[in-house]
Target: Response regulator receiver protein
Amino acid sequence: MLLQKMLESAGFLVTKAQSVLDAMDILKDNVPDLIISDLEMDQLDGFEFKEILLSSEKYQNIPFLFLTAHNKEVFIEKGLSLKAIDYIPKGIPKEQLIAKINNILDTVKDQKDQSVNELKMVADRLNLKNVPTKNLKLKNFQIEIFHQTFQNHPGGDFIDLIRIDDRFTFLVLGDVMGKKWGAWFFSFTFLSYIRSAIRLCVFDGNLSVAKIMQRINQVIHVDDFLDDIYSTLSLVLIDDEKGEITYSGASDLPLLKYQTETNKIEQYKSKGLLLGFFENGNFNEQNISTIANDQLFLLSDGVIDYEANGVKKTDINLFINQLETLLSANKTFDEITAGIFNKEKYQVDDCSLIQIKRI
Model:
């Protein structure tokens, strides 16, 4: 209890477990930046706790400190052999404890930043991008893209603009389940399948977004490489000649349409399942007419996810209310994203927002 108060008074958010089993339950929902563990505990001791963590890919790299009254070399050697970072003695002065923890966390952060920078350099050399770097202006539509990574790490969101000819353009927004580099890696496989399916269907004279979604889904469903890897997808076909939008989705968030005449947002919800989950994805398509100044939005779940008091929350209605307020004030897309995705909102995932504006 004293240790917990010392850490909390220094600004750390502390979660206390009464036993190893209790700690494992907590870890299911909350992976910490650092674990401090007693060596001697009932049922399972600190060494056994560390061995359990080492056997899990999810937990094995969490920085780990032993808290103990023992200073025997045999205990120290065993702990270090289990990849514990250090021992801290019970009764350590508060200033030394805080300094030690801050040094450990700073070192871990520096190592992660170095690894991320190295991966980014490789990705840049290979020209690997899953989000366009430029917006697109058509005859009757303006498409603008906002994408913000989570903690400067590439994630599972992917976007593509596929222009077939002067009349038809496909817009793709997907989100691979998972976090950071793992999801980012698989996003290129999904993008490859999606691009190929769209091109093949177009060559066959098929412009139905629901049928294209089913073609994509069938291929992904039978790919062993993507076993247990799933993705959402929003697929939009823009008819620049007629000023019409056709939309289909796979477990995505609703397409939002703002009408200047009413200053209200209408939701278009898809029925499709996650890509690859079943052989038949049950996809439907919706035709959406537009007039000048109508604005449509596609979004990933990072847009509506946020953290409050250490708890992750999801609220699409909050986002819609914010968006309606900004749009009714005639804010530009840049002003909208600056107003919604500010430093006051604690980001918990990568965010993607796409605006399709009728001009």
